[in-house]
Design a protein that fits this description.
By secondary structure, the chain is of the alpha/beta class. It folds into 2 domains: 5-181 and 298-383, Aminopeptidase (3-Layer(aba) Sandwich); 183-294, Alpha-Beta Plaits. It is 35% helix and 25% strand. The chain contains 11 helices and 16 strands. It has helices spanning 5-8, 11-23, 32-44, 104-121, 141-147, 150-154, 207-225, 263-284, 303-317, 336-341, 369-383, and strands at residues 49-54, 58-64, 71-77, 127-133, 158-166, 173-174, 178-181, 183-192, 196-197, 232-241, 247-248, 251-260, 287-294, 299-301, 322-323, 344-352. The strands form 4 sheets. It has an 8-stranded mixed beta sheet, with helices on both faces. A 4-stranded antiparallel beta sheet has the order 10-12-8-13, with helices on one face. A hairpin with a 3-residue loop joins β1 and β2. α4 crosses α11 and α7 packs antiparallel against α8 (263-284). The protein is elongated, with a radius of gyration of 24 Å. The two termini are 18 Å apart.
């Protein structure tokens, strides 16, 4: 079946909801106004089992189906990014320094659309658990909600999420079995030497030269320690040191990011980085301390649930607009924590041409909202059909 007629009829409402959220962005776990807006809509839909305060401002709500069946989780993220918007739209962010530049406003609107339809029809067995999550953008709101026990409390059996995809044809739904988003780690290397006059380097222990050598040596982790068929990124993104052209500083700091898919590659990088930092420090006579901070794990789709989700997507948008061979991305996503606990799938819906996410000119495409909402609703109806 194509886009659900009732959901197509909700297009203007979803646009209104999305643009309201877009104008009022919130960061991290402090998504209280957004959560309040979501709760108001859910109550209007006749949903009565609503719980708030998850990961500070998250919302979890339950829609009861008809009879015994599975409990299916559907998740949307609510937080914005700390950046200024340059779109010039009449519904642009009203808050300087905050912007929905990743489409979480659209994700929330799509889940609200699916929720309104499912609460009206209840054409499924079991339950739907609606998960409106704060703090996806680096703060691990998904991890916090899992640790707080929402999956056990509501008996979630499987869980799904979608994210818009700029650059993908509008309405195309893409996914892949196995890893679809990378694990993300950060590293910080603090180097201590002995500073002095730039004209007399022999009286110093130069941390700048040591830092330069460490940066070069870190590149060998990808080129010489990693199997070429294993995906890996090691990027140095900051080198901070010095105050003047004629002063050799006492300290230097190197920062960067590591992206992996496989746990054994992740372990190898942390071990080799420690060995390289220690060896290079010894060779230059400085001391160096590595702080390796593990962030989100890889987002790994369950093969069976991904095959099922692709089948549902084909019913919504047709065979030509679905791919189950989406190329995994080296970006990260904290839906990974939910997929570690329950089988499920993370999919993309094409946003069409335009600026990428995290760009100040990005904007969610309201035309894809009925497609995303229909996909979410049909996941439920197809997983737990009546009769």
């Amino acid at each position: 079946m194509p886009v659900i007629n009732r959901i197509a009829g909700l297009a203007d409402e979803m646009k209104t909801w999305r643009r309201h959220i877009h104008m009022n962005p919130e960061l991290g776990r402090e998504c209280h106004e957004t959560a309040g807006f979501v709760v108001e809509r859910l109550k209007e839909f006749g949903i009565t089992e609503i719980s708030t305060g998850w990961a500070t401002s998250g919302v979890v709500a339950v829609i009861e189906g008809q009879g015994e069946g599975p409990t299916i989780g559907l998740r949307a993220d609510m937080d914005a990014l700390p950046m200024d918007e340059i779109t010039g739209l009449d519904y642009a962010s009203k808050t300087p320094g905050k912007m929905h530049a990743c489409g979480h406003d659209g994700h929330t609107a799509m889940l609200l659309g699916a929720a309104k339809y499912l609460s009206e029809t209840r054409n499924f067995k079991g339950k739907v658990v609606l998960i409106f999550q704060p703090d996806e953008e680096g703060g691990g709101g998904g991890e916090a909600m899992v640790q707080e026990g929402f999956m056990d409390k509501y008996g979630v059996d499987e869980v799904y999420a979608i994210h818009n995809g700029p650059g993908l044809e509008a309405g195309l739904i893409g996914m892949v079995a196995g890893p679809i988003m990378a694990a993300v780690d950060s590293f910080y290397i603090d180097i201590n030497g002995v500073g002095g006059h730039g004209a007399m380097p022999h009286t110093t222990v130069d941390p700048v030269v040591a830092a330069a050598s460490i940066v070069q040596a870190l590149q060998t982790i990808v080129s010489r320690n990693n199997d070429a068929q294993e995906r890996l990124v090691v990027s140095v993104t900051q080198i901070n040191t010095g105050t003047a052209t004629n002063i050799i500083p006492d300290t230097a700091r190197i920062c960067g990011t590591v992206r992996t898919f496989d746990p054994h590659v992740r372990d190898m990088v942390e071990q080799r980085m420690g060995e390289i930092v220690a060896g290079q420090a010894a060779s230059f006579g400085v001391t160096a301390v590595l702080d390796y901070d593990r962030g989100y794990p890889a987002t790994v789709n369950d093969p069976a649930k991904t095959a099922f989700a692709a089948e549902v997507a084909r019913e919504v948008v047709g065979d030509a607009m679905v791919t189950d061979e989406t190329k995994p991305m080296m970006a990260a996503e904290d839906f990974s924590y939910m997929l570690e606990q329950r089988p499920g799938t993370y999919a993309f819906v094409g946003n069409g041409d335009g600026p990428m996410v995290h760009h100040p000119a990005y904007n969610f495409n309201d035309e894809i909202a009925p497609i995303g909402a229909s996909f979410l609703a049909r996941l439920v109806e197809k997983a737990a059909p009546l009769g």
